[in-house]
Structure formats: structure tokens, C-alpha cells
Design goal:
Elements: E1 3-7, H1 10-19, E2 27-29, H2 45-56, H3 66-73, E3 80-84, H4 90-100
Parallel strand pairs: 1-2, 1-3
């Protein structure tokens, strides 16, 4: 079994790929700057992802995060999960909080 690497963005994911520490299919980029835009209280991940997608695409798309969420739901396919988030970054901490909830 493989390790799922959940990273705070494309840059970190790209660094993991180039370094050879992870294959592209093992990297999940969270990619949602939760410090701006609507974050309604209490919705499911799917409902929150749709709201966030509408915000980031100016209402054009509600499925921007569907692929990311589907990848996350397959977490049991992996033996290990590695979280790559900075302890000193508000964006990372918000994303990590969303992910863990």
C-alpha cells in the first residue's frame, strides 16, 4: 500500500513529485484559501466545497473541488497519510482544520 500525501498547495505537491518522495497519484493538493470568501457553518464537505467553488469561480462552477474530495474519500486505499502543512501559516492551519473536521 502507498502513502497519501495531502499538501497545502500545488507548489508543495510539485516539490514532492520532483524530489521523488511521492508519485503524482499519491499527492492531494488542498488548494482552498479559506481566509477569504464564504465558509458557512456546519455543512458537509460536499456542500462546503460547492459554496467555495462558486466563490472561486465567480458563480460559474460548483464542482471545482469534486475531484479533490473524491480523492480524499479514498483515504482507506492508503496505508499511511502524510499531512504537509506549515504550523506558522494561517492558510495552512485553516486548511488543516477543515481537512481534519
Amino acid at each position: 500500500m502507498e502513502t497519501l500525501h495531502i499538501v497545502d498547495g500545488e507548489s508543495c505537491g510539485g516539490t514532492l513529485r520532483v524530489s521523488g518522495l511521492a508519485k503524482a497519484k499519491e499527492i492531494l493538493s488542498w488548494r482552498d484559501a479559506l481566509y477569504t470568501g464564504p465558509v458557512p457553518p456546519g455543512p458537509t464537505l460536499h456542500a462546503l466545497s460547492q459554496a467555495r467553488s462558486r466563490f472561486w469561480t465567480n458563480g460559474r462552477k460548483k464542482d471545482e473541488f469534486d475531484k479533490r474530495d473524491a480523492h480524499l474519500k479514498r483515504y482507506e486505499d492508503y496505508e499511511h497519510i502524510a499531512l504537509w502543512f506549515s504550523p506558522n501559516c494561517v492558510l495552512c492551519q485553516l486548511s488543516l482544520t477543515q481537512l481534519l473536521s
